[in-house]
Amino acid sequence: MGKPPCCDKDGLKKGPWTAEEDQKLIDYIQKHGHGRWRILPKNAGLKRCGKSCRLRWTNYLRPDIKRGRFSFEEEETIIQLHCVLGNKWSAIAAHLPGRTDNEIKNYWNTHIRKRLARMGIDPVTHTPRLDLLELSSILSSSLYHSSQLNLPSLLGIGPFANPNIQNLVTAFNLSSQRKTSDMNTCQYLQQNQFDNTLVGNHQFQSSQPIQPSTIYSGQANQLHSRPIQEIQHCAASSTLSAPFQSEVPQLTQAKMEQLSPNLAYFGSQNSLPNLWPNIGERPDHLAMGDIPNFPEFDSIIDPNSENHVLHSNNIERIPSFSFDSFITTPSSSSTPLNSSAATSYANCSTEYEDSYCSNSLMYNIPNSLNASGLRM
DNA sequence: AATCAGTGCAACCGCCGTCCA
DNA sequence: TTGGACGGCGGTTGCACTGAT
Fold this sequence. Notes:
Blueprint: H1 19-32, H2 40-44, H3 50-61, H4 72-85, H5 89-93, H6 101-118, H7 130-145, H8 151-155, H9 163-182, H10 184-206, H11 212-216, H12 228-233, H13 248-263, H14 339-344
Helix pairs in contact: 7-10, 7-13
This protein binds a DNA duplex through helix 3 and helix 6.
């Protein structure tokens, strides 16, 4: 192995810093400035290694450190910079005055990465996750072509041993039965496909990560001005818009086989929010508890907003798409929830993450298919 | 009230690049 | 030219806190 940890020698102290130690370090640096970390602890009367002192100073004691929650602007900046710089936390921190690389790194790992994952966006590449897009398409296509999706049959396996998975399939079939009768599902799925395609279009045509300026910001609205045909014809592998794809049954079968291992995660937890897209139209006989934990179940819809797509009767009604509604902080949300939406958010995991279930979350992949389902 | 699981964050670890004798 | 010292960085760990059961 490499050289031994510097703190192992001389009986130097490790672990949390005491207030006394902090004060000693502050006093010393105020008098002598920082640098020469190797000799600093000795001169300051600290039983710490220089490295520990440097970390304590740069990550915690520095007077210009900004504490408290990240603002929306900061969060957006982090995502944008991460898209460009990757895990170069110090470089990212250089653009955020008062924030340390360690703080940004922690915030990324504990908040932003999870949210992007929930949104179906790969936090590493900043592209939509292809496997989720495909699975979403498969489910959509199957829903269109069959009023009873027989997943066990499709997957070539017996009845689900896991009751949660069985519940999921049941729910899916119930949704299918109801929705195929009024065609709203088709429109909804088209819309959902369309939304996915907007993102997928970027990936497949350019092979570049989605640029924050388009996908994360209001500028994404420009994407929606494209003719629907232009958008739908591309990226067929990820967007099998049912009415337009004659090869759906074959592809569906193939893709189901391809993805079947991952489907084993289906019933593990979280949601499949798209199954009952219309708020208030959840089947009466299917209580919320029938499917485990649907945090975004209703929350992707703001009934008062022009943004909502699920009631759309016109495929060309292009929803707006704003990053503001993806990631906001309670203090700076640009899309405050109205009362009905707030009510429907009741099952969101945390207040802070409610914005993730926000009204114009078009790029919506069931939670059961992302972070906890299909491993990142 | 006790226990457990999940979460957030400070701190540590190990590697790497740069500097300098 | 070389090797040790040093600082910086990204990844990981450990623990305190909180909410659920």
